[in-house]
Amino acid sequence: MTPGTNVLSLKNIHKAFGGVVAIQDFSLDLQAGEIVALVGDNGAGKSTLIKIVSGVYTPTSGEIRLDGEAATFSDASSARSNGIEVVYQDLALADQQPVYMNMFLGRELTKPPFGLLDKARMRREAQGLVDELDVRIPSAASTISDLSGGQRQGIAIARATHWASKLILLDEPTAALGVAETARVEEQIINLKQKNLAILIISHSLDQVFRLSDRICVLRRGEQIGIRETASTDKNEIVSMITGVS
Question: Considering only CA atoms, which of 187, 2, 3, 192 is closest in space to residue 85?
């Protein structure tokens, strides 16, 4: 992807569940090599929006464009096949499986002629990826349940990096981590930007938002309040937009 080119365009996205409007008239262009933070109180519609982009929900109305082409995702697998990966707050890792099996979960490599799992290749490729991203774990053969929260988050991000070709969505990626582990994960997120991926991150930490993002998009009760260049705003303005209290 060329830095600055539009990867994802959302136009007039509306999502209702029966008579309840979760998202109304949301529009955003997300570019390669850019981090956009999506902020708002609980119930603002942030996770709903992530699920729309990742194919879990279909918008009631509005348009999604990927690389300038109209896109419709029938499910999460459809979004993944189009280069979109999600790192959820609960990580979606198989705790009793080794790192390398988690890296290829649902996309396992096999070898002819009988289609047996090619564990050696998966282990080798997973080890190369965690080394490249400097995810500090004993080895790609380590069991997920033996790793710390920060290490698990690192694996989830590494997996998304491996498969994403366009866009990574991060839903509260450091919510359960300590200071040191948060710093490590933030380094990984910055590395994703340097790979020219487009990144949309949900975070309740405004300190983190200001450290990482290029732009900040504010939602309040399903309504898009505004978008600000991070370098041109401050926490007071963002808090006022989130709460509606000036």
Answer: 192
